[in-house]
Fold:
Amino acid sequence: MPDQTPSHHVPSRVPSGVPDGGVTRRSFMRTVGLSAVAATAQTQAERLGDAQPSTEDTNQFGPEPGRIRLKINGQTHQLTIDPATTLMEALRWHAALAGTKEVCDRGACGACSVLVDGRLVTSCMMLAHDAVGKDITTVEGLAKGERLDPIQESFIRHDALQCGYCTPGLLMASKALLSDNPRPTFEQIKQGLSGNICRCGTYTNVFNAVLEASGQEPLRDPEGPDA
Amino acid sequence: MNRFTIATATSYDDASAIVKSDRFALPILKAGGMDVVDHLKEGLWEPDALVDVLRAEGGAAAPIQEHREAGRSSIRLSALTTLDEIATSTLIQARCPALAQSAGSAATPQVRNVATAAGNLLQRPRCWYYRSKDFDCLKKGGDRCYAVQGLNRYHAIFGDGPCHIVHPSNLAPALMVAGGVAHLTGGDRDSIPIAKLYHTPDRGVRDEHNLKPGEVVTAITLNAAPNSGFYAIKEKQSFDWPLVMAAVALELDGTRIANARVCAGAVAPVPWMLPAVGQALRDVSIDDDAGLKAACARATQGAAPMSDNAYKLKLLPVAIRRAVLKAAGKEVE
Ligand SMILES: Cc1cc2nc3c(=O)[nH]c(=O)nc-3n(C[C@H](O)[C@H](O)[C@H](O)COP(=O)(O)OP(=O)(O)OC[C@H]3O[C@@H](n4cnc5c(N)ncnc54)[C@H](O)[C@@H]3O)c2cc1C
Ligand code: FES
Ligand code: FES
Structure:
């Protein structure tokens, strides 16, 4: 009875194979999400008309929704948003980049971490407007085409995730850390990732993934560096 | 969040002018936005405009600078310098280690990358009654401080109320012992010492600072305090505001403490100077552990803990002693 097999590797209620031409849950959600976003963008653009100035031309944005341009993973996205939209909301709902996760929505867990001009920030606490004119990198921007970033490969090799909800944030924090410090000590890794909470407690595997991605020996004892 | 306009200030004077004009009914200054956005999400504030100062210096904050005059050194930060820039500045690490340490131990890497110096000093308290829309406490115009009869584990052990918040800023105690000054525009003065920036709740409970509407912080200066240290005791090593923090600036004559300035944080509604501890530390050797302990024990004189926070009486002398040791360049775990 597969339903009763206690395994966190194979979710029991999700069919493992998708019939030819079938739709996975993810691709279904994606289609729905995209068309919903496209529809809103269109109606808002219509309502506002092309004369609506973008925020880059004036020092006032709002109170009505307006257009901003965000450079995400090297691509410019033109989005029509309410000024009260956070960067996380702009990414997930308006740019259809749902890799960035929402957990606490208060800057207190790190799940929504992205890079803004190379610096690690919590996108839930930053207004999208603050990111105008900056280079935003999300987890979708780590891979080069089909080739995963070495830190992603290392996460996979070290099984550095359980439920995976914290993973995009931890990947971005690891990426930020390694860009600043290509060979961090164990203490520096803990410091660098200290703004990311993993509810499943996968820290040791994450630390190992970062150690290996920086050309260092992973730890053998999960309890600490000197075992 | 309610619907608002974002007005981008092109300079600090512009920010002040926007706040003082009648263009908006309820404008709120925003820097990194860490605390402002939190208030908006909790529905505590419903401004019709955020006046954004992030671009007041043209996009990037002026670099941290040192001024030397007549053998004395002072440091200048922009209002927009981030906590991370303070923590990692080799200049601040050398000239005022307490400040670098206070910034580096605050919050998380993500927060430190965004949070500004001025915003940190002017962030509102973390009291859970203040932060919850459901409690109409004194700070929000209500008629009582719920901490008095309620849960007050993280509240003040000093001060006579009527409100019992602790001031949450990590930077404030460090700036207090280093003679910090906030430089201002938009009012009738150019600056205010950090020592005069805050008021106790008996002198106004709705806010914590003495800035007038439209007064904007442009920069922060401080005196070099090379023998200074900061120590925070926290429940979690990351994320949390400290339970107790201490900043100490020493003048040393060999191993003898010739002068000491001590300021505690997270124990009172304002950064809490402890002149009696400073006095008692005088002439004590930094190698005399018993002497340091006796001096630091004076920290709790005059404290009046609430029902759940007497534990802070034990933490405070420890935090101060460790800050003294760090100020003297000793290793502290
Ligand atoms: C998870 C988490 C943990 C945290 N831990 C700590 C901690 O341990 N220690 C600590 O000290 N802080 C901590 N913080 C708080 C954080 O440091 C502050 O919220 C931040 O420093 C505020 O700076 P900001 O630039 O984002 O300010 P904003 O949120 O933009 O503004 C804060 C206040 O300052 C006013 N203001 C801003 N700039 C100016 C100016 N130039 N002139 C006049 N008024 C101005 C604003 O009107 C507002 O009232 C934590 C925050 C989070 C989310
Ligand atoms: S969702 Fe942004 S920090 Fe938790
Ligand atoms: S893997 Fe589940 S929260 Fe980290």
